[in-house]
Amino acid sequence: MRAEARIDLDAIRDNIAAIRARVGSAAVMSVVKSNAYGHGMVPSARAARAGGATWLGTAVVEEALALRAAGDTGRLLTWLWAPGDAFEDAVRADVDISVSGAWALREVVAAARAAERPARVHLKADTGLGRNGCTPADWPALVDAALKAQADGTVEVVGLWSHFACADEPGHPSVPAQLGEFVAMLAHAEGRGVTPEVRHMANSPATLLLPDTHFDLVRVGLAGYGLSPVPEVGGPADFGLRPAMTLAANLAGVKRVPAGHGVSYGHAWIAPAETNLALIPTGYADGIPRHASNVGPVLVAGRRRTIVGRVAMDQFVVDLGDDEASAGDEAILFGPGDRGEPTAEDWAAAIGTISYEIVTRIGARVPRIHTGTGAS
Ligand SMILES: *Cc1c(COP(=O)(O)O)cnc(C)c1O
């Protein structure tokens, strides 16, 4: 083993079950986009299903089709489309499709005709995120066009939905503003005759902190992988969650160097005294942020230590002082934290990002080793 990401599928299953228990009658969608935030999409999706996720969500259609190819037959929504995407494949594969505007509705209708079956669509409202979704001004026209397609038998409008900009900032005024806009856009669509099976808005932070936003379905990504979307409010354990990913590497060497010895490119660190240096065989090509140079935390030889010098493409160095270690000893970059190792949140804090980015960026060269529910 050079480096590996160990994924505890039981943790994913249990996190989804814990989220289910908090949201009452709302259903849970496990968001498995981007290789399940780096955790491995297919096994993570299976574990989430085992925990009670009746829906899965992906950003792009290729992800949804890969889940179908792997045998997933449950409800599945995909939301990020560009013209020319595989709408017809999605309809044939029984994937629910998000529609944010007129061009997407046209493509869905054409796909449904070609596939000779109606497409299930979720109309997406931009209630203030300013990204995807239909603005309030364009909503009446989109709703009417979708209802016409439904009357023609090409689509079934099964969902109405939106997405928050600032749900992770408790008290942010945009949260009630977006919620109010969503309620108004729902009322308009329902007044025109839409009878949605699911209305949904909540992401992980809203699911954990804002019960008023749960509606019929919550869409959880990060929380399902056991990380807190609101670290200033609480850590994973405060929400009954357990981090699923442990990133480990075996030392590729340990050596004694004299005072004044430089380390890695640019000599961004110079040994102040004679010391033992451990070489970790993983680098920015594996998703270790180069910004972690001189600041990233790692558990080596029983203690938390800090990266010294620059993170290179394939390797970085940790200073052990006078402590001993040997090539082949295990280093833990992050994990749940209960063995003294840093967490993904610690890495995020060290380099000024969010834990979402830390786990999602782990590269394809790092094998995912799955244990527990659904591991094959
Ligand atoms: C990624 C994503 C989610 C999940 O967000 P988390 O904060 O990870 O729970 C939910 N909805 C949409 C539209 C997304 O793109």
TrEMBL record:
Keyword presence, Isomerase: yes
Modified residues annotated as N6-(pyridoxal phosphate)lysine in this record: K33
Start and end residues of each Alanine racemase C-terminal domain: 244-371
Residues involved in substrate binding: R131, M313
Cofactor: pyridoxal 5'-phosphate
Record InterPro entries: Ala_racemase, Ala_racemase/Decarboxylase_C, Ala_racemase_C, Ala_racemase_N, Ala_racemase_pyridoxalP-BS, PLP-binding_barrel
Pfam families referenced in this protein's UniProt entry, alphabetically: Ala_racemase_C, Ala_racemase_N
GO annotation (BP), single: D-alanine biosynthetic process
Matching Gene3D superfamilies: Alanine racemase, Lyase, Ornithine Decarboxylase, Chain A, domain 1
Broad EC category: isomerase
Keywords: Isomerase, Pyridoxal phosphate
NCBIfam families: alr (TIGR00492)
Enzyme Commission designation: 5.1.1.1
GO cellular component, as recorded: cytosol
Protein name, as recorded: Alanine racemase
Organism: Embleya hyalina
UniProt GO MF annotations: alanine racemase activity; pyridoxal phosphate binding
Pathway participation: Amino-acid biosynthesis; D-alanine biosynthesis; D-alanine from L-alanine: step 1/1
Family recorded in the similarity comment: Belongs to the alanine racemase family.
Active-site residues from the entry: K33 (proton acceptor), Y265 (proton acceptor)
Reaction catalysis annotation: L-alanine = D-alanine
PANTHER family documented for this protein: ALANINE RACEMASE, ALANINE RACEMASE, CATABOLIC-RELATED
Protein role: Catalyzes the interconversion of L-alanine and D-alanine. May also act on other amino acids.
